Amino acid sequence: MSRFLSNATNRIDSKGRVSVPAAFRSVLAQRNVQELYCFQDFVFPAISVGGPDLLERFERQIAAEDPFSPDANEMSLLIHGGGVFMKLDAEGRLMVTDFIRDFTGISDEVAFVGRADHFQLWQPQAFQAAQIQARRERRLAGRRSG
After folding, report:
1. Backbone CA torsion sign across 27, 24, 131, 42
2. DSSP code at position 34
């Protein structure tokens, strides 16, 4: 299966690089992703990372709107204004830039979180807190519907 699943936390080295988990690199290789599209998530303090297909999916949504509509403009602001292209180095590491650090609060470790067709970069404690909150909300939703 070529999906990003699970999560892993890796340390940032002294040069500001972090190794992308092998399972995630394998998915990138299966999908032949050479350049990573990274954008600031719309909901969470996380950077979403995928291939060009991820950007193209959002651009198709923008193109389906009136180019002068508030929706198209907001989406472009988030997708284009909040996005960058990055590449892994030869050892499968990603540079943890200010773009990533400033938005996420990441300092010395990165939590890599699978999201099916892309993955996210999180500050580890923020990821744990969001996961706990999501479980709590799912549990409460289950009680209300039962």
Report:
1. negative
2. -
d(CA 73, CA 42): 14
Nearest to 112 by CA among 40, 5, 37, 3: 5
What are the φ/ψ torsions at residue 111 (nearest 5 degrees)? -95, 120
**pTM recorded for the entire structure:** 0.93
CA distances from 109 to 31, 55, 56, 91 (A): 26, 26, 30, 18
Mean predicted confidence (pLDDT) in 116-134: 97
Measured from the Cβ of residue 137, the count of other Cβ atoms closer than 10 Å reads 10
Give the per-residue SS3 of 84-136: EEECCCCCCEEECCHHHHHHHCCCCEEEEEECECCEEEECHHHHHHHHHHHHH
Kindly state the tokens that stand for 98: 């200010």
pLDDT of 126-140, one tens digit each? 999 999 999 999 988
CB distance 53 to 143 below 8 Å: no
